[in-house]
Amino acid sequence: MPERVMFTMGDIACAEGALSAGCRYLGGYPITPATEIAEWMSIRMPQVGGAYVQYEDEIAAITSVIGASWTGVKSMTATSGPGVSLMLEAIGLAVMTETPLVIVNIMRGGPSTGQPTRGQQGDIMQAKWGSHGDYQIIALTPASVQEMFDQTVQAFNLSEKYRTPVFVLADETVGHMRERLVIPDEKDLKLEYRKTPTVDPKDYLPFKADDDLVPPMALFGSKYQFYATGLTHDERGYPSDKENVQIELVTRLQNKILHNADKIIDVERIELDDAKIGVIAYGTPSRSAKKAIKDARNEGIKAGLLRLKTVWPFPEKQVAQLASEVDHIIVAEQNLGQVYHMVKAVAAPTPVHLMAKPAGMPQLPHEILTKLRDVNSM
Fold first, then answer.
1. pLDDT of 106-120, one tens digit each?
2. Is 201 helix (H, G, I), strand (E, B) or coil?
């Protein structure tokens, strides 16, 4: 068993976070820069009574995770962008069948094979829009080794509570950096577990939601008999081509997340009380932004940071508040501008400046400081 205080890498912290959250199954396929998660789980899962299975590809991996979840086991997979590309159809199935599971994407350079050993943040829109149809997704963006642990636990809690796939989107730098990790006692984690039905089996409707828009979830092999399908289905789980059934179903799937967005979304505000320039960043670039803002304030530039710990659902209220407080916004992300377009739409008419860097090395503090100087002189 690991020590409660470790000096370790982000990928291993993620694996330990999953285990602490109660994950007992990982279906995966090796891929840089997420392979260390699978390697660590192959050792640790047998120690806690769980199972790690390596499959022939990512499609098999994600579908096995869906099946495992329906047996009542907290389940996950860990991959990178090319692997998520192969999983997208099955992710849509998990959304439609309301299957709780966690997908860890240690983001690397792309498109295609790209730069396997270099980090980027090019999969933000893939997580939200990769599968087809109207749906919402939850995606968290850790920026440290400790957050790789903490947000993996949070991802499992959210997936269980809202019966939905949840992404942990970490860039390669966060996955491979080594820092101090503190593993808390299990009693301090406040773990969530999916609701299960309490009605008589003859009265059970598998997709009849409670007031929170989330239906209780029976398990395969239990006394409850039911049908789970990716087709549009009514409360019984039976396929339907009726317009009202489709409208009601997809609306509920969206609203169970959107109506709880204030409970899901998490941001960190740094030095924003008197800021004239607000920086928005997430993952590794946010670490550089913290240092750049400290240096900028030493020069008399009133800058602050809105760090996004959740990118989906998008923190519109928090961005709109920032836009009302500052004269300019800078979005620093390790891509050509994915969150930038969301910020620009919400922040108008406050000017929004993109600091894009679709390369393996994130924005460095002195680069962000230079951008702050330029914007401050406008």
1. 999 999 999 999 999
2. helix
Longest dimension (CA), the chain: 71
Q: Could you give the CA distance from residue 242 to residue 253 in angstroms, rounded to a whole number?
A: 17
**pLDDT of 87 above 70:** yes
**DSSP single-letter state for residue 11:** H
With CA atoms as reference, report the closest residue to 290 among 347, 328, 332: 332
Q: Cα dihedral angle (261, 266, 272, 277), rounded to 10 degrees?
A: -80
Helices (H), 49-181: 58-70, 81-96, 124-129, 145-162, 172-176
CA-closest candidate to residue 321, choices 371, 262, 260: 262
**What tokens does 276 get?**
């004239």
Question: Cis link prior to 100 (omega < 30° from 0)?
Answer: no
CA distances from 255 to 39, 93, 103, 239 (A): 37, 18, 21, 21
Which residues are CB-neighbours of 349 under 8 A, at least 6 positions away? none
What are the pLDDT digits (tens) for 256-306? 999 999 999 999 999 999 999 999 999 999 999 999 999 999 999 999 999
Task: Please name each of the domains of the chain with its CATH number.
Answer: 5-188 (3.40.50.970), 266-376 (3.40.50.920)
Block residue for tokens 């329906």: 70
Alpha-carbon gap, residue 267 to 320, rounded angstroms: 13
Global confidence as pTM: 0.96
pLDDT at 108: 97
What is the residue-averaged pLDDT of the chain? 97
